[in-house]
Specification:
This protein has 120 residues and is mostly beta strands. It contains two helices and eight strands, in the order βαββββαβββ.
């Protein structure tokens, strides 16, 4: 189940990733303003990425912070690439989510999203 997908902007690849508020319904903050997400990347590596809620007027705005920039660097992500966060339990790894990095490609004259291989 998709939690969110987003085409990356400069702030997303250089500072933190804000994502649509509807993604909050898939996260359990247990009364706190932050939660550490246990995320499996496309190489099967377990990552811990912190999500916190910041107030934006009347509603909370979710942001990925700690651990996010390492993911960006490991996959060489840039402006215009896309990230997809999916709800997916992997009991053997202990993860609750899977994260995908995608890049626009042209295949037989058609634009499509292709998986980004790990850069490092």
């Amino acid at each position: 189940m998709e939690v969110f997908s987003k085409e990356l902007k400069a702030t997303d690849v250089g500072v933190k990733l804000s994502f649509p508020t509807h993604g909050l319904e898939h996260l359990d903050f247990a009364g706190s303003n932050s939660v550490d997400l246990r995320v499996k990347d496309s190489c099967g590596e377990l990552r811990v990425i912190r999500c916190w809620k910041r107030k934006n007027g009347d509603h909370d705005k979710p942001v990925l912070s700690s651990g996010w920039l390492k993911f960006v660097a490991d996959y060489g992500l840039g402006v215009g690439d896309k990230v997809v966060l999916l709800r997916e339990d992997d009991h053997s790894l202990g993860s609750q989510f899977r994260i995908e990095a995608l890049r626009k490609i042209v295949l037989l004259g058609q634009k499509a999203w292709g998986e980004v291989p790990r850069a490092t």
